[in-house]
Amino acid sequence: FKKKFHGNEHHFLDTVNYIYLSTASLQNAINDFKNVADKFQSESKLIDKTNPLSLRIVNDQLIQLERAFINPLGNSIERSDVKHVVYAPSRKDQYNAAGFPTIFDAIEDNDIINTQRQIAITTYFIRSAVSVLQQPTKLQTTSA
């Protein structure tokens, strides 16, 4: 997943920078995601695979990671069934998935306001994914 995410980032940022939109917050979120994903990957290799609680924590984080990129409202009014904000088909090509589809669609529409909105929405979801991959600081337990 990280490779797909990383591969689309440069082409996307070149396009957005060409039309003079600020992508600093999005770029920072992407960099934070890369850093926390690398750390998560290296730490997950070191977990005790005989400890069910450790495995459960990592598994739960992976499940929540995928959910962090899902917009429950859909990517747009006309495409409410497409919900993944980072990797999904664009409006023009339903057969091939593209990185940051809502942002590219807004750029193709020449809609600067919507492009800024989609950058903000995508940044929010990437930040959510960052928070999912950070190590849990406190485990909630139930007492009998």
UniProtKB/TrEMBL annotation:
GO terms for molecular function: carboxypeptidase activity. It comes from the Eukaryota. Residues 22-133 form the Transferrin receptor-like dimerisation domain. Transmembrane segments: none annotated. This is Transferrin receptor-like dimerisation domain-containing protein. It comes from Didymodactylos carnosus.
